[in-house]
Amino acid sequence: MADPTSELFKKCTGCGQNWATRAVFLADSMVELVGYQARLDDIERGIFLFTHLRQGCKTTMGIRVLAFKDLHREKRRSSSSQAKNNTPECEGHCLHVDDLDRCTADCANAWIRELLQTLKEPQHS
Fold first, then answer.
1. pLDDT tens for each residue of 4-20
2. If we measure between CA atoms, which residue out of 29, 35, 25 comes closest to residue 55?
3. How far is CA 60 from CA 87, 89, 92, 95, 110, in A?
4. Half-sphere exposure of 50 (CA within 13 A, CB side)
5. Tag placement on the chain: N or C end, fewer CB within 10 Å?
6. What letter would DSSP give residue 78?
7. Structure pTM?
């Protein structure tokens, strides 16, 4: 019987590989960040998409933004900054799942784009 107190960061839904911690998951060269599925009504409930590159697997797994929120290094935009989606200022990055680029708009959601840059780095905090 499995120990109910032992927690696991992520299990691949395709091949069953386990990653005990976030650090181990992010350090795995067989895991690649491939997308971000935005929840514009609640940005922190968005999902980062990672593909497990293990031969014979190639499963894409979703992990909520909240699992990585503390890795965001820069100060977030002020609370007076509002989401700019559906405005002329919006660059549209969050509308495209495979777009991992930065956003330069003064948008309350732009910090997610910076967090994506952190997750793309070879070594993570």
1. 556 899 999 999 999 99
2. 29
3. 31, 31, 23, 19, 24
4. 25
5. N
6. P
7. 0.85
- Decide if 24 contacts 41 (C-beta within 8 A): no
Q: Tell me if residue 62 falls in helix, strand or coil.
A: strand
Whether the CB-CB separation of 63 and 72 falls below 8 Å is answered with: no
Residues 6+ apart with CB under 8 A from 27: 123, 124
| Alpha carbon distance, N-terminus to C-terminus of the chain | 34
Q: Helix or strand or coil: residue 106?
A: coil
Structure tokens at 90: 């919006």
Q: Has residue 111 got a pLDDT over 80?
A: yes
DSSP for residue 74: S
Q: Give me the amino acid identity at 75.
A: K
Which residues are 62's β-sheet partners? 49
Q: How many CB atoms lie within 10 A of CB 3?
A: 6
Return d(Cα 115, Cα 117) in angstroms, integer: 5
